[in-house]
Specification:
Helices cover about 60% and strands about 10% of the residues. It is mainly α. The chain has a single domain, classed as Arc Repressor Mutant, subunit A (Orthogonal Bundle). Helix 1 crosses helix 3. The structure holds FE2/S2 (inorganic) cluster.
């Protein structure tokens, strides 16, 4: 599913950027080689990033 229409960023790309350490949409977009344009997607993108990072922390804590 496309998250950011301006940059054609889909959910999988955003999750990959979050797993690579991007804590917010702007850093995730920079990781993907672009930047926010209209800003419409930022709240939804932030939600996806937070869920992905929370899931990553749960996996890490279970492995420890
Ligand atoms: S939809 Fe993402 S910057 Fe416009």
């Amino acid at each position: 599913m496309i998250v950011c229409i301006c940059n054609a960023i889909d959910e999988d790309e955003l999750r990959t950027a979050a797993r690579a350490g991007a804590p917010c949409p702007r850093s995730a977009y920079a990781h993907l080689g672009c930047e926010a344009q209209c800003g419409t997607c930022l709240c939804f993108a932030q939600e996806i990033i937070e869920k992905e990072r929370a899931a990553l922390l749960r996996v890490d804590s279970q492995a420890a």
